Amino acid sequence: MNPDAIVSANAYLGARGIVAAFRNGADIVIAGRVSDASPVIAAAWYWWSWSDTDYDQLAGGLVAGHLIECSAYVTGGNYAGFTEAKYGGWQSFTHPGFPIAEVDADGSCVITKHPGTGGFVDEDTVKCQLLYELQGNVYLHSDSKAILNEATVKQVGPDRVCVSGIRGLPPPPSTKVAIFYKGGYESQLLLNTAGYDWEAKCDLLEKQVRLQLGDKANNLDILQFQR
Predict the structure, then answer these.
(1) Which pLDDT score is estimated for 1?
(2) What is the DSSP string of 44-108?
(3) N or C: which end of the chain has fewer CB atoms below 10 A?
(4) Angle between helices 16-23 and 38-48 (to 10 degrees)
(5) d(CA 86, CA 209)
(6) Planar angle of CA 70, 8, 220, nearest 5 degrees
(7) What gap in Å lies between CA 74 and CA 95, rounded to an integer?
(8) At 43, is the secondary structure helix, strand, or coil?
(9) Using alpha carbons only, how large is the chain's radius of gyration in Å?
(10) Alpha carbons 45 and 17: distance in angstroms, whole number
(11) CB 123 within 8 Å of CB 111
């Protein structure tokens, strides 16, 4: 990659900077590109006075943050089993409430939502979100690794699910970086046809476009017509 083409590069930072801000009296913290779970980890880290080597607790905070990072996903907003009879129909998921993570001192958490809001919090919706974006039994983060082999998901009340058993290890030596660079552009055009001779009409459309492009088509890296 040509370094001159780079527009920006953002590392997915952990929770340490947010924790430092809390300890210095901040009520509101405006962060750069931190990982999605970092604000939740930071709040629990500060509240329970964890150290940066309390890897089990930090890993639990990481999972808690992961579970609520996609807002209403964990309350059913993206749940594949919404047609199951126990939920009472699709109408129950039209306005799912935002989730709440109650993180305990040991890193375990209870996922819940505000009373009276739509959607559901049960073992299935939580498991569905827990598996989101995972690539194995180890979830990597800048503050710790979360080991999920012994994770338990248990219903402890209406719209209340406890997640525990998360173990932690020291974080990896590197972190994810999102790089944006000037790489050109792509243009797509969709043309619809109907009638008995639709295939011939598609042929005609291709001929029309190629004729209008003329020699300009030679300047394109790729020119495809798909049907």
Answers:
(1) 66
(2) HHHHHT--TT-HHHHHHHHHHHHHHTTGGGGGTTT-TTTTSGGGTSGGGGSSBPPEEEEE-TTS-
(3) N
(4) 40
(5) 54
(6) 100
(7) 13
(8) helix
(9) 24
(10) 11
(11) no
H/E stretch holding 138 reads strand 138-140
**Cross-strand partners of 9:** 179
Dist. CA 164–CA 153, nearest whole Å: 7
Return d(Cα 44, Cα 110) in angstroms, integer: 13
Q: Quickly tell me which residue has 């699709």 as its tokens.
A: 90
The helix-helix angle for 55-68 and 123-130 (nearest 10°) equals 110
What predicted TM-score, i.e. pTM, was given to this entire model?
A: 0.82
Residue 133 tokens read as 């974006």
C-alpha span between 74 and 69 (Å, rounded): 9
Task: Say which residues have a Cβ less than 8 Å from residue 227's Cβ, sequence separation at least 6.
Answer: 199, 202
The 3-state secondary structure of 187-223, one letter per residue: CCCCCCCCCCCHHHHHHHHHHHHHHHHHHHHHHCCCC
Q: CA-to-CA distance for 225 and 218, rounded, in angstroms?
A: 15
Q: Is 36 exposed, middle or buried (0-12, 13-18, 19+ CB in 10 A)?
A: middle
**Which pair of tokens denotes residue 116?**
């009276």
For the segment 48-93, what is each residue's pLDDT rounded down to a tens digit? 999 999 999 999 999 999 999 999 999 998 788 888 888 888 888 8
Long-range contacts formed by 132-138: CB under 8 A, 24+ apart: 132/66, 132/70, 132/73, 133/66, 138/169
Return the amino acid letter for 180: F
